[in-house]
Amino acid sequence: MLRLALTFNSGESSLGVMTASRAVARELRAEIARQQVTHSLIARRLGDLGLVVSPAWVSRRMTGSAPIDLDDLQLLAQVLDVDVERLLTHAGIIGSGSTDDLAS
User: Fold this and answer.
1) 90: left (phi > 0), else alpha (psi -120 to 50), else beta?
2) Which residue ranges make up each domain of the chain?
3) Which among 102, 99, 91 is positioned nearest to 4, based on CA atoms?
4) What is the DSSP letter of 87?
5) What number does CATH give the domain 3-93?
6) Quick check: 8 pLDDT over 50?
7) How far apart (Å, rounded) are the C-alpha atoms in residues 53 and 39?
Protein backbone atom coordinates (compact mmCIF):
# COMPACT_ATOMS: atom_id res chain seq x y z
CA MET A 1 0.00 0.00 0.00
CA LEU A 2 1.31 3.44 -0.90
CA ARG A 3 1.72 5.55 2.25
CA LEU A 4 2.62 9.19 2.34
CA ALA A 5 4.17 11.08 5.19
CA LEU A 6 1.99 14.15 5.41
CA THR A 7 1.41 16.67 8.13
CA PHE A 8 -0.54 15.16 11.00
CA ASN A 9 -4.23 15.95 10.76
CA SER A 10 -6.82 15.29 13.41
CA GLY A 11 -8.64 12.06 12.67
CA GLU A 12 -5.71 10.42 10.92
CA SER A 13 -3.45 7.74 12.33
CA SER A 14 -1.59 8.40 15.53
CA LEU A 15 1.65 8.12 13.56
CA GLY A 16 0.76 11.20 11.53
CA VAL A 17 0.80 9.16 8.32
CA MET A 18 -2.01 9.50 5.83
CA THR A 19 -2.62 6.92 3.13
CA ALA A 20 -2.87 8.12 -0.44
CA SER A 21 -6.48 6.96 -0.52
CA ARG A 22 -7.38 9.06 2.55
CA ALA A 23 -5.55 12.07 1.14
CA VAL A 24 -7.50 11.77 -2.11
CA ALA A 25 -10.75 11.29 -0.17
CA ARG A 26 -10.05 14.55 1.65
CA GLU A 27 -9.72 16.36 -1.69
CA LEU A 28 -12.84 14.70 -3.07
CA ARG A 29 -14.80 15.76 0.05
CA ALA A 30 -13.64 19.33 -0.49
CA GLU A 31 -14.79 19.21 -4.12
CA ILE A 32 -18.14 17.69 -3.13
CA ALA A 33 -18.61 20.51 -0.62
CA ARG A 34 -17.68 23.14 -3.23
CA GLN A 35 -20.18 21.70 -5.68
CA GLN A 36 -22.79 21.05 -2.98
CA VAL A 37 -23.64 17.61 -4.33
CA THR A 38 -24.88 14.65 -2.31
CA HIS A 39 -23.56 11.12 -2.15
CA SER A 40 -26.90 10.04 -3.66
CA LEU A 41 -26.34 12.25 -6.69
CA ILE A 42 -22.78 10.99 -7.10
CA ALA A 43 -24.04 7.38 -6.91
CA ARG A 44 -26.65 8.13 -9.59
CA ARG A 45 -24.04 9.75 -11.84
CA LEU A 46 -21.74 6.73 -11.37
CA GLY A 47 -24.68 4.51 -12.30
CA ASP A 48 -25.06 6.47 -15.52
CA LEU A 49 -21.46 5.47 -16.29
CA GLY A 50 -22.21 1.80 -15.62
CA LEU A 51 -20.93 1.56 -12.03
CA VAL A 52 -24.00 0.75 -9.97
CA VAL A 53 -23.24 1.77 -6.40
CA SER A 54 -25.17 3.01 -3.38
CA PRO A 55 -24.77 6.32 -1.58
CA ALA A 56 -23.23 4.25 1.25
CA TRP A 57 -20.51 3.06 -1.18
CA VAL A 58 -19.66 6.69 -1.90
CA SER A 59 -19.76 7.56 1.79
CA ARG A 60 -17.38 4.74 2.76
CA ARG A 61 -14.81 6.05 0.29
CA MET A 62 -15.23 9.66 1.35
CA THR A 63 -14.76 8.81 5.03
CA GLY A 64 -11.77 6.57 4.39
CA SER A 65 -13.44 3.42 5.71
CA ALA A 66 -12.98 1.89 2.23
CA PRO A 67 -10.02 2.67 -0.04
CA ILE A 68 -10.33 4.54 -3.32
CA ASP A 69 -8.62 2.63 -6.10
CA LEU A 70 -7.45 4.25 -9.32
CA ASP A 71 -10.49 3.12 -11.30
CA ASP A 72 -12.80 4.57 -8.65
CA LEU A 73 -10.79 7.79 -8.61
CA GLN A 74 -11.08 8.19 -12.36
CA LEU A 75 -14.86 7.69 -12.28
CA LEU A 76 -15.38 9.92 -9.22
CA ALA A 77 -13.34 12.66 -10.86
CA GLN A 78 -15.35 12.27 -14.06
CA VAL A 79 -18.74 12.62 -12.35
CA LEU A 80 -17.45 15.64 -10.41
CA ASP A 81 -15.89 17.10 -13.58
CA VAL A 82 -12.54 17.56 -11.90
CA ASP A 83 -9.09 16.63 -13.16
CA VAL A 84 -7.48 13.57 -11.54
CA GLU A 85 -4.05 15.23 -11.70
CA ARG A 86 -5.37 18.23 -9.78
CA LEU A 87 -6.82 15.98 -7.06
CA LEU A 88 -3.54 14.07 -6.76
CA THR A 89 -1.53 17.29 -6.67
CA HIS A 90 -3.70 18.86 -3.97
CA ALA A 91 -3.54 15.61 -2.01
CA GLY A 92 0.27 15.81 -2.07
CA ILE A 93 0.65 12.59 -4.03
CA ILE A 94 2.26 14.11 -7.10
CA GLY A 95 4.15 17.34 -7.54
CA SER A 96 2.71 20.36 -9.23
CA GLY A 97 4.77 19.69 -12.35
CA SER A 98 3.69 17.89 -15.47
CA THR A 99 2.95 14.18 -15.54
CA ASP A 100 5.49 13.99 -18.39
CA ASP A 101 8.06 13.32 -15.65
CA LEU A 102 6.39 9.97 -15.01
CA ALA A 103 7.13 8.73 -18.53
CA SER A 104 10.90 9.01 -18.19
Assistant:
1) alpha
2) 3-93
3) 91
4) H
5) 1.10.260.40
6) no
7) 10
